[in-house]
User: Fold DNA-(Apurinic or apyrimidinic site) lyase from Hymenobacter daecheongensis DSM 21074.
Amino acid sequence: MPELPEVETYRRFLNEVILHQAIVALEVRDAHVLGTPEDVLRENLVGRQVTATRRIGKNCFLELSSGQVLALHFGMSGDVGAYRHDHDAPRFTRVALHLADGLRVAFIDPRKFGRIRLTESVAHYQQAKKLGPDALDVTATQLQQRLSPKKTILKPLLLDQSITAGLGNWIVDEVLFQAKIHPERRANTLVTAEFEALHAAIQLVLTTAISHEATYRHFPASFLIHARGWDESATPGTEKHLFCPKHSKTKIAKSYVGGRATYVCPRCQPEPVKSE
DNA sequence: ACCCTTGTTTATGA
DNA sequence: ATCATAAACAAGGG
Assistant:
């Protein structure tokens, strides 16, 4: 689930539990999630402390007292947790930082697409990974500048972390629904008012999601996410509320855009005409 | 047993 | 150079 709102929620959690405390041990339960060799990581972590936390898009950073930075990416299924006793370690804990006061901070990742690596600075990492401006910082003008030269369809561009960092699959669908723009519109056909609507929708969706700590069930009824069928009966074909939150008679359409599952209200988000 | 999945990287071909 | 597509990564859960 980790898109920007989840990662921001993780960052705030880490900021609460880990700041200004000596790291006394690095426990590696599965080295697969390490993007830096275990011994190098241990050398740079043990005896140091985290002085600040940062986030760009879906990446979380722990700034260390050594000046180095620990970069966390959560892949498809990453999470964080804290525990005190070994037998209380969350299931799928892959790595844990042991703190001076006995608390252990867990990097949890069932599917192991996440990575923990050391980097010299946040700026260096941002450049190396080609991350664009964070989705919460990007302005309507910047969006227009970055998107309008492109003739390709909008949704894959919004998922592209080098254009703007932090938007994932469901958020893009939610943003486009709130902005009333079809995901297959060509980016160069959007008018200024639509870039402004896009920007407003990004702000709305991200701030709403963060304020609910990314718990989907608590999102407003006006959100498309409730039509994705993630709740209760998630068996394909048996999804429950498949109707538009604004047009209770209009069924939400599911398709694949850029190879990703995509949900659209055909009435709120009219399909582009062929000439576009 | 089969199909789906929130992300990113890489290969391949147009 | 740009773009589209698919596969790969790994594994849980329906």
Q: What stands out?
A: Residues 232-239 of chain A have pLDDT under 50 and may be disordered.
